[in-house]
Amino acid sequence: MYQRIILKLSGEALKGNGMYGINPETVKKIATEVKDIYDMGVEIGIVVGAGNLWRGRIGEELGMDRAQADYMGMLGTIMNGLALQDALEAIKVPSRVMTVLPMSSVAEPYIRRRALRHFEKGRVVILSGGTGSPFFSTDTAAALRAAELNADIILMAKNGIEGVFDKDPKKHLDAVQYTNITQDEVLKQKLKVMDATAASICSENKINILVFNMNEKGNMKKAVLQEPIGTLVTWEDKND
């Protein structure tokens, strides 16, 4: 069983069946799944995106400066983090929202040692604000936090996608899912698991990634227990 994980949630996972926004029932469902693994004694850091509230391409369509649009996305991750914290606290899971953007009224500043202390105290740590810098995705934020907090693995929870495929399963019925694949192969084949910067950080710091479907009840627990599920993206070829 993994002892310390970074759970990467896409912002779109929080919108449920809607087009945009935060779906309360969906957030409660995610919180319940997190509680299941929290009760097992797993130390949990959560990085959440903001695709349900703001997309970079919207900024581009509006003719916005890229950095400005990215900062808006970072604010969206904080909103999602606060919603998730509220759902966790409602079911008696202690949590802290930490952000790299100064926002002392609603969240703690992200300090590595303080985050580690929260783990020791048995708190779920919600890591919001992305990297704090524009031009980097929340995937990169997840990779950075996994490296500096010494996480065993990144659990990449996808909204209705079972794992990594050789091509888009939504467009190609003959798409084949990988059970295991290396990060080098992901980069070479340009598979959309995470951006190249995030994948490189994971590879350099020997961090594996498990991509799985978060919409199926119990999958998060199966992932933590290392049961065969989704696609395991490894930093090295185990056949070498």
Question: Which short descriptors sum up this protein?
Answer:
alpha/beta, 240 residues, 9-stranded mixed sheet
How would the blueprint of this fold be written?
Elements: E1 4-9, H1 24-38, E2 43-48, H2 56-61, H3 66-90, E3 95-99, E4 108-109, H4 112-120, E5 124-128, H5 138-148, E6 153-158, E7 180-182, H6 183-188, H7 196-204, E8 208-213, H8 219-224, E9 231-234
Summarize the structure in words:
The chain is α/β, with parallel strands linked by helices and 240 residues long. It has a single domain (4-234), classed as Carbamate kinase (3-Layer(aba) Sandwich), CATH 3.40.1160.10. The protein is 36% helix and 18% strand. The chain contains eight helices and nine strands. The chain has a nine-stranded mixed beta sheet with strand order 4-3-5-2-1-6-8-9-7, with helices on both faces. α1 (24-38) crosses α3 and α5 runs parallel beside α7 (196-204). The radius of gyration is 17 Å and the shape is globular.
Provide a brief overview of the structure.
The protein is an alpha/beta fold. It has helices spanning 24-38, 56-61, 66-90, 112-120, 138-148, 183-188, 196-204, 219-224; strands spanning 4-9, 43-48, 95-99, 108-109, 124-128, 153-158, 180-182, 208-213, 231-234.
Shape: globular
Counting helices, strands and paired strands, the structural category is: alpha/beta
**Beta fraction:** 15-25%
As for the number of domains, it is: 1
| Rg from alpha-carbon coordinates | 17 Å
CATH superfamily: Acetylglutamate kinase-like
The first-level CATH class name: Alpha Beta
> Could you please say which CATH topology applies here?
Carbamate kinase
Distance between the termini: 25 Å
Number of helices: 8
Count all strands and give the number: 9
> Helix fraction?
25-40%
Q: What is the makeup of the main sheet?
A: 9 strands, mixed
Mean pLDDT: 90
The CATH architecture classification is 3-Layer(aba) Sandwich
- Order of the strands making up the biggest sheet: 4-3-5-2-1-6-8-9-7
> What letter string, H or E per element, gives the SSE order?
EHEHHEEHEHEEHHEHE
Poorly predicted tracts of residues: none
